[in-house]
Amino acid sequence: MGTLHTVNKSPFQNQTLLSCLAHVKDGDAVLMIEDGVYGATTGTAVSDALAKISADVSLYVLGPDLAARGIDAGRIAEAVNSVDYEGFVDLAATHDRVHNWL
């Protein structure tokens, strides 16, 4: 399988998530963690970018990090799936590589 890309910075503070989305390939996955979970919320320019790429790339958000920031799961973009820590480990194990976007 492709690469798992993890993004831990808020897209409202820097361009890390958008840079990541510009470099992913078909079969890759993007997991938003820590402050990166803000990128998974609906109604933003970032959510439009996620929707455009979601046909080719799997999109995930770490549920415990959403909860830690008080973000309701109902505010997550439709194309994004929430995973727990076990799901994070599964994603890392099923992809060829893990690339951390700092």
Task: Please supply descriptive tags for the structure shown above.
about 30% helix, about 100 residues, Hypothetical Protein Ychn, Chain: A, five-stranded parallel beta sheet, 4 helices, alpha/beta
Describe what this molecule looks like in 3D:
This protein has a single domain, classed as DsrEFH-like (Hypothetical Protein Ychn, Chain: A), CATH 3.40.1260. By secondary structure, the protein is of the alpha/beta class. The two termini are 22 Å apart. It has helices spanning 16-23, 45-53, 63-68, 85-94, and strands spanning 3-7, 29-32, 58-62, 80-83, 97-101. It has a five-stranded parallel sheet with strand order 4-3-2-1-5. It contains four helices and five strands, in the order βαβαβαβαβ.
Number of strands: 5
Q: What name does the CATH topology carry?
A: Hypothetical Protein Ychn, Chain: A
| Low-confidence sequence ranges | none
Count helical runs: 4
What would CATH call the architecture?
Answer: 3-Layer(aba) Sandwich
Largest sheet: 5 strands, parallel
Give the CATH H-level superfamily: DsrEFH-like
The helix content, as a percent range, equals 25-40%
The ordered string of helix (H) and strand (E) elements is EHEHEHEHE
Total of domains: 1
Mean of pLDDT? 95
Q: Give the neighbour order of strands across the main sheet.
A: 4-3-2-1-5
